[in-house]
Design brief:
The chain is of the alpha+beta class. The chain is built from 5 helices and 13 strands. The strands form 3 sheets. Strands 1, 3, 4, 6, 9 and 11 form a 6-stranded antiparallel sheet that branches. A 5-stranded antiparallel sheet has the order 2-5-10-7-8, with no helix packed on it. A two-stranded parallel ribbon has the order 12-13.
């Protein structure tokens, strides 16, 4: 039951994503955990602001805007860490520094990227063990640093990467920004599907969305269907990835039926 509190340790070891990762590793070699979202309990911040619109999914990313603010990741066993960032505009964002296992500060190798784009800083050549990565702003803070999340790999050159991007009990529109939502910014679609070079996107929504109340009064099956089609279209047209749509059967009389037609 993930309605109130996410047991990240259980999800990353016993969830269906973890099971799929382990099964594939038996045949194609171990590549590591992959995506680690900012809401994971291995990511902590000092002073940084958690902002839903910045994250790898809509669960959130961290914004660092003042000296003394940090974001720290304690990795699983890995040799390579990817730091995923969001560059809102040249006028607002700047590079950052990071350290690994208490070592000296390194400057992220990025430069002005233009407006509204995502980027990844790769930290490689690490020993095969748990690491601590600390991110902080440049010595003189004049702009913001937006951290969307991380990926950790033991070997990213082979095997099959399986990334957990969702949340048990979550809704489609609380995981992504469907462009069919009025006024929504689809940046999380780009962050999630583009950065991780997705080949197969598995969507397992339906139990909550098929309720007559959905995620709130006014939520309807038609809204769910529109959001689902929008995300599938975005994934296939923009990134060329395949989509596996897992539908769920009716759970109780308040739920309105099958959405397999979507």
């Amino acid at each position: 039951n993930d309605a109130l509190t996410t047991d990240n340790a259980a999800f990353r070891t016993r969830g269906y994503v973890a099971q799929a990762r382990d099964r594939l590793a038996n045949n194609y070699s171990e590549v590591g955990e992959g995506v680690i979202m900012c809401v994971d309990d291995r990511v902590v911040s000092v002073g940084a602001t958690l902002n839903a619109s910045l994250g790898i999914t809509r669960q959130g990313g961290y914004r660092i805007s003042n000296s003394g603010q940090t974001v720290t990741l304690t990795t699983p066993v890995c040799t390579e860490v990817h730091i995923h960032g969001w560059w809102e505009s040249d006028a607002k964002c700047e590079a950052f520094t990071y350290s690994v296992d208490g070592g000296g500060d390194q400057t992220a190798s990025i430069s002005a990227l233009g407006n509204d784009t995502d980027y990844t800083v790769v930290v490689s050549g690490l020993s095969l063990q748990v690491h601590t990565v600390v991110i902080k702003p440049a010595a003189t803070v004049t702009k913001q640093v937006d951290i969307a999340g991380f990926s950790a790999f033991s070997d990213s050159s082979k095997g099959v990467q399986v990334n957990r991007l969702g949340k048990g009990g979550g809704y489609l529109s609380t995981m992504f920004y469907p462009t069919s939502d009025t006024g929504a910014n689809p940046r999380s679609n780009r962050l999630t599907l583009g950065r991780t070079r997705t080949d197969l996107l598995v969507l397992a929504f339906g139990a909550n969305e098929s309720s007559v109340t959905g995620e709130g009064v006014g939520y309807t099956p038609a809204i769910y269907r529109a959001e689902l089609i929008d995300l599938i279209t975005y994934a296939t047209d923009t990134f060329g990835c395949d989509v596996m749509f897992l539908t769920l059967g009716e759970q109780n009389p308040s739920q309105v039926g099958s959405f397999g037609e979507a």
